[in-house]
Every structure is written in structure tokens, then in C-alpha cells.
Design brief:
elongated; alpha+beta; three-stranded antiparallel sheet; 10 strands
Length: 581
């Protein structure tokens, strides 16, 4: 069997020995071949110079996809023109004086063989071009979809902070509803419609379900296209400020640098999206900021696709030249088996990496807990190892990727983004448990309104954003809630040695948000307990000598106020949990 394979492969190699004889058969042919090689080298040098020049132009930043398209197309176009010209010249002027040499395997004349060589180069050049043009088209489509999502966000926010004036109302006009909303009386509704201030109030009004009222009428033919023009103008202002020196850095930033100093428009949009569509200040980020920020991101299919397409083209060319791919694969099979055994663990890691990506077990930035108890954020997933950063940035766990597929992993960020924030507290035996539960409900409701992050977004998930009560847009705390939640939840846990133990539960948007939430709840709890004289006992044993009655009388003085809280807020979820709920 081995002898047959060697004989078959040797037979295929003989064809290329015929090609070398072909080149030696004519001096004119050798000269044409040298011109071809020199021409290709010259085109490559010119292309590199042209590509560097294009990268420095404004087009590369304002229209990055068009710039990439031009850079990819120029090289193959000139290469194909050169190769086709040489082929035409050779065939037209009959450089093959002796056409008697024929390849015994393919029955091809020298002219046909050389034409096949040139056509092979053309096919490789076209394959290279297609392999790089398809990802450009895919990326352009992806960025266009993101641009449409940004437009929808712009509509929901009624404009971005960096818009030129009230751009939203230049494109849309609010139309009041025909019927009075249930939350308003007819008199109030008609009175509001008489003034511009009243109409603005109604436009921003939200129902008890958080829905706006009325509708919007288009004032321009295509608001999306008009919005795109305005966004490009804002980017051009950003670009001009960067190159003119009128920016935060105080110097003229250069284009086309290996370490980018200016954001291209796609990166500019991503930064705006990440920062809640706040304006991007020119020159405010150090050189290379965007590249460093994205260096740990996994490669997308559009980045891997060119290699796959070009390999397919090469295999097709090899098959076209008469080489049996099955025989070639069989000949290299033994080597592949040896390499496979040597790289067994590496391949296990690689396929585990593919499974993690395909099944979306976890992704970069998600909070997970391993079966070893290690808790942290997924920093980077590679085909060999996965990096998990401890929550307090104290360490990195470097784990072979294959081990994670077979491990029990708790993902705190997957699908339902609700994490319980639990605050436990013990109160005095002299306090009424129902009154304490009611005050804890009040504390929880205060926290739902008051606990926010640095950007003003509520940390606690809830069915209706508190901002809607003030006719402000929702911060997002009421979005994508797929389960029925009833909070705050109060639990009377147990009778402890020196206290009645309660716990207050609320649900926050992610794992990290629980820490600030619990801190703020404890501060609110201190204020409310002090207001209503809810006492937290010292962890000591108290010997009473007639003082218990006096202390009870002191507590009873605020009984009426505590009962008012009980009547207003109830006991919350204190009696729930008798069955499967």
C-alpha cells in the first residue's frame, strides 16, 4: 500500500518537472516570465505605498469600509491586468518555437501549459481578493445593523446630548391621542393641550405601565438617512478637531499611525454606544486606546473567513493541476496522526473553546463561579487557556479551557440578570415584629428609588422605573425582566439569643451591583430605625432589674407612628412562602 502511494505521488511531481523543462525551452519565454515576476514585485511595492497613503486620508476614517475595499481591489486588478497582458503577448507572438514538447500525463503543448500557469496565478489572485472582500461586506452589514440600533436608541431618548439643537423634533412631531389617558381627567388633558408646555408634559407622560401616549408624525421623508447625515457631521467635527490641534491634547493628531491617535467612525460610534451616547471629546484618550481596549476580544468569523476561503482556492488549484487530494491526504495521514497524538491536549482545549463559543456557556465580562469556589469575571477565553479575574483584582485564575467544559460553573450574568442583594439585621425583642417588617418594606421601597450608580441608573430591578413617575425616560431598570418579581421581600428568620433576626431582599441588575446596594440599604436602615426607635441590641446578655418596664413604655410612645407605617406599607412578603412559591 505504501509503495502505491509513493508511486502515485511521484507521478504527480513529474508534471512539475515538465514545467521546469518548459521554462528552459525558450529564452523569450524566460524573459517574459522574468518580466511577469518583476511586474508582480513592482505592483506589490506600489500597492504597499498606495495603501499607506490611503490610510492617512480622511476617507479611511469617514468611510473605512470603502477605504478597505479600495485597498483590497487595487492589487488584484493590476496583477490580473499584468498577468493577462503577458499571457496575451506570449500566445499572440508565438514565443514557443518548438511546440513538440507535450506533457505525457495531460497531453498539453508548451503554450497550453504556460497558459495554465498564468491562469493559476490569476485564480489565486482572484481567490485572495474574494477572501478579503467578503469579510468587508459582512462587517459593513454588521455595522449598518448597529447603526439602525443606534437610531432606535436615539428615537427612544428623543435625541442625543451632542445633537445640533432639538434635532428630534425637526424630524418628528408629536400627535396627541384621541382619547384621554386613564391616569388623567378630561379637564386636565384638554387644559394641557392648550399650551406648548402642557403638550411637552403629555409627550413625556408615561402610563402606569410605563408606556408613552400619543404617536409621532414624520416631518421629513427619511428620518434615518437625515439622522445618519447629522451623525457624520458630528464625526467630521471630531476628526477636524483632532487634526487641527483644537482638541483636549492640544496638539495635531496624526492619521495613519500604527498606534491610532484618532478613532475611525465605527470605533467612534462604539465608544459613544458604550458611554451611553455621551459626546466623544477629541484628543481625550491616549494613542492606541481603542486597540488596547479590544485586544482581548475573540476573533469573529469575518476575521477567520479569509483564511478558509483562500485555503479552499489553493486546494481547488491543486486538484485542477491533476493532483489527487485523496492520495495526498492519505500520504500525509500518518504524519497527521503523529501530530494529533502529540497535540492531544491542545486539540481538546481547542474543541472545548469551540463548544464554549457555540453553546455560549459564558463570555468575556460575565461573572462566574467555578466548582473550586473561585469567583470572578471572565477576562479572556483562548483556545488553550481561559483567564478569570478575581472580583477584587487580587489575582487571575489561568485554567485549561478543556476543564471548563466538564466543570460545574455558576454563571451570574447569563440570561436572567437578577442577583439577590440580602441585608440581614437583628432587632430588640421589645419591638413589634409586624412593625419592624413594615419599616423594612419602607426601607426597601426607598432603596428602589434612591440607590443609583454614577450615571443615575437604578441598581435594583423593578417593574416600573421610578423616573417614569417624574415624566423622565426609563433608566432601563425595568427592561428585560422575564420573571415575576415582588419586592422588597422581608423575611423573619429566627429568634436569636439577643435579637429578632430579619432579612431584607431586593434584586439587582448584576453581581457587582449588590455590594453598593447593600451598603446604601444599611445607611437607609440606620436612618429609619433611628426615626422609629427600632433598636438593634448589643450582642451581650442583659440583666434587667426593673428597667424592662420602663424601656417598654419608652418604645410604646411611638406605637401610633409605627402603626401608621404598618397601615401604609403592610408587612410585605412576610407571610409568603407556605408552599412551592
Amino acid at each position: 500500500m505504501a509503495e502505491e502511494i509513493i508511486e502515485a505521488v511521484s507521478g504527480q511531481v513529474d508534471q512539475f518537472q515538465g514545467i521546469s523543462q518548459l521554462l528552459a525551452s525558450s529564452e523569450s519565454l524566460q524573459a517574459a516570465f522574468i518580466v511577469l515576476i518583476v511586474g508582480i514585485i513592482g505592483i506589490t511595492v506600489i500597492y504597499r505605498t498606495f495603501s499607506k497613503w490611503v490610510k492617512k486620508q480622511k476617507l479611511n476614517y469617514v468611510r473605512p469600509h470603502l477605504s478597505r475595499f479600495v485597498r483590497v481591489v487595487v492589487l488584484p486588478v493590476f496583477a490580473i491586468i499584468l498577468i493577462t497582458s503577458v499571457n496575451f503577448y506570449i500566445q499572440s507572438f508565438a514565443l514557443f518555437e518548438d511546440d513538440t514538447f507535450v506533457n505525457p500525463e495531460e497531453k498539453m503543448s508548451p503554450s497550453e501549459t504556460f497558459a495554465k500557469i498564468l491562469n493559476t496565478i490569476n485564480i489565486l489572485v482572484i481567490g485572495y481578493s474574494v477572501a478579503h472582500l467578503i469579510p468587508i461586506i459582512l462587517r459593513k452589514k454588521e455595522k449598518s445593523n448597529l447603526e439602525k440600533e443606534d437610531f432606535e436608541s436615539w428615537k427612544e431618548l428623543r435625541g442625543f446630548p451632542d445633537d445640533d439643537g432639538d434635532l428630534f423634533h425637526k424630524f418628528y412631531k408629536w400627535v396627541p391621542p384621541k382619547h384621554t389617558p386613564d391616569e388623567l381627567t378630561d379637564e386636565e388633558f384638554k387644559e394641557k393641550l392648550k399650551t406648548e408646555e402642557g403638550k411637552k408634559f403629555l409627550e413625556e407622560f408615561r402610563t402606569t405601565k410605563g408606556l408613552p401616549i400619543g404617536s409621532f408624525e414624520q416631518l421629513v421623508k427619511d428620518p434615518f438617512e437625515e439622522w445618519k447625515i447629522s451623525e457624520r457631521k458630528k464625526y467630521e467635527q471630531y476628526f477636524d478637531a483632532c487634526v487641527s490641534g483644537n482638541n483636549e491634547s492640544g496638539k495635531k493628531l496624526k492619521t495613519g499611525q500604527d498606534v491610532e491617535e484618532i478613532f475611525p467612525i465605527d470605533t467612534w460610534r462604539e465608544e459613544k454606544r458604550f458611554n451611553g451616547f455621551d459626546p466623544i471629546i477629541s484628543g481625550s484618550k491616549p494613542p492606541g486606546y481603542a486597540k488596547r481596549k479590544r485586544k482581548d476580544l475573540p476573533k469573529s468569523i469575518s476575521q477567520i473567513l479569509p483564511l478558509g476561503i483562500f485555503v479552499a482556492v489553493i486546494l481547488g488549484v491543486i486538484s485542477w493541476w491533476g493532483i489527487d487530494l485523496i492520495i495526498l491526504a492519505t500520504a500525509t495521514g500518518g504524519l497527521a496522526i503523529g501530530i494529533g497524538l502529540a497535540l492531544q491536549e491542545t486539540m481538546q482545549n481547542y474543541f472545548a473553546y469551540i463548544l464554549i463559543r457555540k453553546d455560549k456557556i459564558f463570555a468575556e465580562g460575565e461573572r462566574v463561579q467555578l466548582d473550586t469556589g473561585y469567583n470572578g469575571y471572565v477576562h479572556k477565553i483562548t483556545p488553550r487557556v481561559t483567564f478569570i479575574r478575581d472580583a477584587l483584582n487580587e489575582s487571575y485564575a489561568v485554567i485549561p479551557t478543556r476543564q471548563l467544559v466538564n466543570s460545574q460553573i455558576i454563571n451570574y450574568s447569563k440570561e436572567i440578570k437578577m442577583v439577590p442583594a440580602i441585608v440581614e439585621v437583628g432587632v430588640s425583642y421589645l419591638n413589634n415584629p409586624k412593625q419592624v417588617a413594615s419599616i423594612l418594606v419602607k426601607i426597601g421601597k426607598r432603596a428602589m428609588k434612591e440607590v443609583i450608580d454614577e450615571r443615575g441608573r437604578h441598581l435594583i430591578r423593578q417593574h416600573r422605573c421610578p423616573y417614569l413617575d417624574d415624566n423622565k425616560p426609563s433608566c432601563g431598570c425595568d427592561k428585560d425582566i422575564h420573571v415575576d418579581i415582588n419586592q422588597p421581600v422581608v423575611r423573619f428568620n429566627k429568634f436569636n439569643d439577643s435579637s429578632l433576626d430579619f432579612s431584607l431582599w431586593v434584586y439587582v441588575r448584576d453581581y457587582g451591583a449588590q455590594f453598593k446596594t447593600k451598603t446604601d440599604i444599611r445607611i437607609i436602615m440606620y436612618e429609619e430605625f433611628k426615626k422609629y426607635d427600632i433598636r438593634i441590641p448589643w450582642p451581650i446578655r442583659t440583666v434587667y432589674q426593673g428597667d424592662e418596664k420602663r424601656e417598654d413604655e419608652e418604645i410604646r410612645k411611638l406605637d401610633e407612628e409605627r402603626n401608621q407605617v404598618l397601615d401604609e406599607f403592610g408587612t410585605g412578603d412576610l407571610g409568603r412562602g407556605a408552599g412551592e412559591d
